[in-house]
Structure formats: structure tokens, C-alpha cells
Design brief:
Layout: H1 4-13, H2 15-32, H3 34-39, H4 45-73, H5 75-94, H6 99-127, H7 133-137, H8 139-158, H9 165-172, H10 175-184, H11 192-197, H12 201-212, H13 220-238, H14 245-250, H15 253-270, H16 274-287, H17 292-314, H18 322-346, H19 355-386, H20 392-421, H21 424-443, H22 455-458, H23 467-473, H24 483-490
Length: 491
Amino acid sequence: MAYLLVSFYCTFIALGAFLFGYDIGVISSSIAVPDFQRTFPGLSDAVTGGIVSSYTGGAIIGSAVVSFISDVYGRKMAVAVGAFLAAFGAALQGGAVTLAMLIIGRVIAGFAVGLMSATIPNYCMEVAPKEIRALLGSTQQWMIGVGINVAQWVGYGCSLYAGSFSWRFPLSFQVCPALIMLFGIPFLPESPRWLIENGKNDAARAILSRLHIKKDGSNKAVVEQEYVQISEAIAAERRTSVRSWYQLFFTRPSWRRRILLACGIQAFTQCSGTNVIMYYGPRIYSALGYSSSVSLMIPGVWGALAVFWNTLFMLFIDRVGRRKLLIPSMLGMGAVLCVEATLANYFDPSASHNGPALRAAISMFFLFSLFFTSLGLISWIYPAEVFPNAIRARGTSISTFTNWSLNLVFAQCAPIGLSRLGYRFFYCFTAFNWVAAALVWAFYPETVGRSLEEVAEVFGDVDLLPNDRASTNSTEPWQSVSEEAKHDIFI
């Protein structure tokens, strides 16, 4: 199978996203076990919220500073630092003897995941051939789903045991994938685009050849053309190099547009209602009379189904346009939540004994996971592919910062919204999703089938296009690269 090696590398580095998903699924079950309550007695709702939110706070900081590591030292280094800190933070959580130790561990682990969640999509998109770029870029969301599902089943299994094992093992388990990443990263190739940007052209050419040339060598000329295209695009970007955050926002209108689009799609993810679904589910399971063990199994089945949908959609995500997947996804989520709100209005889970209606409400959660799949996958792909190489790390840092910030907002506001607005809270997310669909239809350009360098054409940055594209897409000749720059590129 072609591109097997690059697929393996992207799947391996996406273990960082597994840690992201694992914590989402493990912390609520760990806090709920009796021994955790005995170890840390008298936890108020505010303290419990602080334990959960400290992780998100660390991730916000990590996503904000990641470009200072990723741009200077490379994509691999940013992920390696994240893996080390993730292992350290997980060890502190699993061995916590005080509340302060637990929260510090969560802040460190969150900071680590903030670094990795902003870097992994960039790495995957920069090493992937354009034919399977979305497939490999979506490994982040796929691993998030796997992490959530593993955490749910680990939490379920450990809940059957008494003592500190019931919560220390699930929290400590995160050390294993973090250490596997830490020791495996030195064997991964660096991003060829980062190497070219930093003058290491021979190494970049060798990596592109190893990862993209098929066994029969039939595409060797295409890979060489790809190398030239990347080199020319980066040489053009050097003339408009960004040295400050002010320049990033105010140098080129097309860059501001890209930032708004990237931040927007991450905001759409958080505003879709997916986190509220995770919060609201246990109330219905309890109202149906399910035991606590069965109530823990239902999210496990939900998570397994989500992984299945992710896997299925990844198989054709490179063949179907981003817009064609996003718009039905958002319209579908809005419709599902509208039905959910209507059911909650007439059949209150806390008071109703209408079993069929309550089961229909649960089925809406499973249907929601199907519609969310496209948005979940593309929310990591689109930001990484719309930015040029010169600002990709900073651009995805801003978009991921948006994701984590809104994650924190909804984590704090969802319980309040549900208690005060009740079923009407779901109508808010119906509106969010339908407005998002309209915004995608009106403002989001299609990027499928283009190399990362050719995406500049979509945003009208003709001066950043490689020679062969610029000459056919501009009424003015593309400003040629200087002889000195050409020498720097091809030595």
C-alpha cells in the first residue's frame, strides 16, 4: 500500500491527541468514585469544577505559546516537550496526596496537551501527500475519539474495584502513551516544510522522497516537482516574513481572513453542543432507572460508535469537499438538538416515566455523534491547511487557543444554562449550528485537492504561489525569486 510509512508516522504522533481524549473521558468518572471522595473530603461544586477546569486552563496557555517552540525548534520538539510534560503531569495526578498536587498535575498535563493539540495537525498536514492529506490530518480527531472511548471503559472497569486503585490507575495510565511518544519521537522525520524554511533543504528532499515516492518509483518526478513547489513557495513567503503578532494580523487582509476562518471553525465545534451532550446524558440514564454500571457502559458504547463514524468518514474525506461535509453536519446537529429540546420539554427526564420518549432522547445523542463527525474531523484539518508555511504555527496556535478557551467557557456555563433554561438551552445550540452552516456556505472556500502551497490561490495570494501556478493564475507575471534565493534553495 502506498504511503504506508507516512501514515504510520502520523498515527504515531497522534498519540498526543489520545491523551487529549483520554482526559475528557476519565476525569469525571475518577472524581465520582467513593475512594476519591474519601481521599479529598468535603469537595464543593466549585472545587470540583476547579479540578476539571485546571486542565483546560493549562491547555489554553500551552496552545498560546506553542509557536515559540514549534517555529524555532521544529514540530518534533514541540510534541516531545508535550509528551514529557504529559507523563510528568499524569504521574502527579495518579500519585496525588493533596488537592494542590492533583491540580498542579492537571495544569501541567493540560499545558502539554495544549502544545500537542496545536502541533500534531500541522505535522500531519506538512508531511502528508495531498492525495491523503485530510485522511492523515484527521488522525487527531480519530485519536481523540479513541482516547475518550478507552477512558470510558477503563473508568467502568476500575469502578468495579474498591480502594485507591479505582481512581489512581485511570489517572496514572496516561503515563504509558506519553512515554511511548517521548521515546518514539526521535525516530520520526521532521516536517520537510519546516526544514526548507530553516535552510535544511537536503534533509527535506530526502524525507519527501522516503515518505512520498511509491515502491515502483512511478511518481518520482511528481515528488521532485512537489519539492520544487514547496521551495519556491517558501522563498516567496520570505519576502513577506512575519516578525511580530501585529504583522500577522495587519500585514495582509488575506491572513486576517484565514485567522478568522480557522478560529471560526474551532468555535463552531465548541458551539455545536457536543460538550453539553456529554454533561446532559447521565441525567437521562438515571431517569430511565439504569444502574450506575449500566450508566457507565452507555457512554462507552456511544464512544465506540463515534470511533466507528470517524473511521468511516476518514475513508472518503479526501474525495468529498470540506463544504459538502460541513454544511449537512451542522444542519443535522441543529435538527437533532431541536428534537432533543422538544422531547425534554414534553418529557422531563427527572419526572417523566415515558420510557419510549426517554429512549428516543438517548437515540438523539447517538444520532448527534454521526452528524458531529464531519465537523470534528475537519475542525483540525482546515486550520492547518489554510495558513502558509510562514504563519502556520502561529495561526493554528490562535485557532486552538480559541477551541480551548470556549471549551472552558462552556464547561463553566453548561450546568448553569441547563439548570436555568432547561430544555430551552438546547435551542441555543440549534441556532448556533444553523448559523454556522450559513457562515460556512457564505465564507468558507473549498480546499480539497490542492497542495498546501496551492491553497494560497484560493485566498488571492498570487505572490505566494509557486512559479507554475502563479503564471497561470495572475494577469501579472509572478515576481521571480532572486538568484541568491534560488542558490539557497537548491544547494
